[in-house]
Amino acid sequence: MYGTRLTDALSGESFLETSFVKWVLSAAATPGISAHVHPQHPVTVDDRSYHLDYLITGVRSHVVVELDGYEFHSSRSAFVHDRIRQNDLVGLNYEVLRFSYAAIREHTARCVAQLQKVLKRDPLLATYLIPDPIAPVPDDMDPNPLGFITPPPARRTATEDDYFDRARRHLNLNPLRGCQREALVALANYYRRGEINAACVMSVGAGKTALGVAATLAFTRRRALIVTPGRVIRGTFATALDPAVAGNVLYTLRGGPLLSGMSAPATEVLDSDLGTIQSVSRKQLLDAAVIVTNFHSLGSADNGLLAKLEPDDIDFIVIDEAHIAASESYRRLFARFPRARRLLMSACFSRADGRTITADVVYRYRLIDSIADGHAKHLRAHRFTPDVEETEYEILWPGGEREPIVGKAALLDIMKDERKVARITATSEEPIRRVMRIVRDCLVQQTQALSPVRPRVLFAALGQSHAEQIARIANAHGIACGTLHHSMTNSEIAATRKRFETESGNLQAIVQLKMLGQGYDLPAIAAVVPMRPYGSFGEFYQLVGRGIRTVHHPALAERAQPQHLDLVYHGELGLDDHLETLRRENDMDPRPAEPDDFGDAPVPDRGAPPLGYPVYADMHVTVVAEQGDNRQQFLHTIDQVEARRQERELNTLAHRYAAYVATTPKPRTFEEFVAVIRSAHG
């Protein structure tokens, strides 16, 4: 039970002290021994004062545990001081045991046996010893598991800085989420084999930006290039690498800094729309350790960014939201830097242009994993089914002519013509009003659940006229709503976003037209409402992702209740298949990479789904209105999330058990091993 473990009862002032309690003392003795263990115990011998790492007192024995980290015990003066200190303690009849960092990490079982042998001499301390102890191999003894990774040699001149060599020595992975650390270790193993084309399939909300920054610091030798699909994500990476901005991932991660004791990498942020590509010089590029840009700026070997760089100028490439990859741009990019290692990141590699990305998936973190770990909200879908068989829309032309659009197929066809999309509206407003009533009910629940955070709603519309129609109906239902579209000026867009995004703003909802897409992050969004069809699953998933991240607030942390994202949608828009794909997460991966393959493979034929496949076969369904009208479903039930969490836990324990068996002459059973890990370490 939490609170009875030795790791909870005994605090350590250093990583090494904590590791001793977790991996040696916890394996050797029961939690009751904590009453006899005194951390940082002061002792005075003549004119010298010492603080003992741990003093363990029994009825006869006084056992001193000294922990030797190489950093503080490697000099000649430290060597002499340690011997004088130990002799002083022996003179007080203390028994001294010394454990080094390497001994605990590499010879854990031997350390446990040595400690037990000394404690057994005291009749009181002997009562706390665990017979036939299990000593698992430590899985967190190296605070930087990438320390053993050495990138391939680079052709570096004597004048070039060794920034990344120094950064790797300061890189601290502890502040990162577990999934980010696991992805980095998987990448390290992949690159160490000499492979270069890696992909990480990371759920929306898992923290791909922090992963991209950490991977850049860990695997770059000379210079990194980060490529994003547009300004929003490019700005996210620019902020993440800027030490002068609050919220960057270098110094202000939850739990501590990613880089401590050294400067941030020199970063050059470029954008073709702002003219910086044309004005930047090759010298400026070579002075940068990291270049951040979007794929529109890449150009070719004759113009644009690629024309200013030579093949060996870049040795690590990060591509975020790789499902939006512009095939020709990325072909040119990979061809320009053929020896550079690549990291492609996306929640879903399904491309809107009907092609698949090619890469080797080295790590996969599903939406259900993110929910189980508390990084993503539970998705609660509300399906409105209209009475009519097919929904009608119409286009109103300037001359007064009305062009009817009937059904999803016709609507998807119209989506290819921006002139028509801009003028389309729903013929009957009753379905919008019915959807709006569901949204209003969701907001009542979310306001209570998220207080004091103000919940927001994100609508997606067909075109400007449709957006204005939705906003008008939302305001009539008491939901303060504005619109966001490309015909607005930059100042109007900024003002509208501020009213929506800030807690002091007065907009509770916004209807947007492809304005707040991939990379946009506002956890306060508590409901997403697609009022348009999505031919691409990736586009649909990105809309859901805008509100999937959990809200971090002290008041909500105290309640410790699961958070939900309400997805309210019109049943005739054909989104059920996308929801089923999201639940099964079966179209997320790129195609395995092949030699000299840059990612332009045709879509494989996966075949039709089984006849009569139940779309919501194992979802929890609750009728919230009259039968056949509105239906609420949880994409993943509480039981499914818990089952998935247990699956991942057992898989992790199986890996640790394998390491334990490999280093133990007479290993205990897996069940016994699991029981010890859970009781001692949680």
TrEMBL record:
SMART domains listed in its UniProt record: DEXDc
Region called Disordered, residue ranges: 586-609
The organism's place on the tree of life at top rank: Bacteria
PROSITE patterns in the record: HELICASE_CTER (PS51194)
GO molecular function per UniProt: ATP binding; DNA binding; hydrolase activity
Domain Helicase C-terminal, chain residue ranges per copy: 445-599
GO terms under cellular component: cytosol
InterPro entries cross-referenced by the UniProt entry: DUF559 (IPR007569), Helicase/UvrB_N (IPR006935), Helicase_ATP-bd (IPR014001), Helicase_C-like (IPR001650), Helicase_Restrict-Modif_Enz (IPR050742), P-loop_NTPase (IPR027417)
Record protein name field: Helicase C-terminal domain-containing protein
